[in-house]
Design goal:
Layout: E1 9-13, E2 19-23, E3 26-30, E4 32-41, E5 51-53, E6 64-74, E7 87-90, E8 93-96, E9 103-111
Antiparallel strand pairs: 1-2, 2-3, 4-5, 4-6, 6-9, 7-8
Length: about 120
């Protein structure tokens, strides 16, 4: 059996001067500009999420069966796009980079243990 514990993830300035991902105040990974999390609710008991929403829009946390997350990693160098704006999408939100750094979006969906 696993004991429940709280983990807090945040983005902030890292030790190398770049944005970084922190977990419970400890730097976990540098070069991370953004972290987005959506919760998948199964409202009809089918075992499949009917939709994904931010935590503050979840109707009933007991219906959440999966989590979809996206991490945006960026390059250290600010001269890699040749002056062209980079367009990218994070969980359905289309964005345009304000600088010349390269960005890569990593997205995954995971089921919550013992919910399926």
């Amino acid at each position: 059996m696993f004991a429940a514990r709280q983990l807090i993830y945040a983005i902030g300035p890292g030790s190398e001067g770049q944005p970084a991902l922190f977990r419970n105040g400890q730097e976990l990974l540098d070069g991370v500009e953004n972290l987005q999390i959506l919760y998948g609710e199964d409202t009809d008991g089918s075992g499949v999420a009917n939709y994904y929403v931010p935590a503050d829009q979840v109707a009933d946390m007991d219906d959440v069966i999966s989590i979809r997350f996206a991490i945006v990693a960026l390059s250290y160098d600010d001269n890699l796009t040749g002056g062209m704006a980079q367009n990218y999408s994070v969980l359905g939100n289309n964005l345009v980079a304000a600088d010349n750094r390269l960005r890569q979006v990593y997205t995954s969906t995971v089921s919550i243990r013992n919910r399926l």
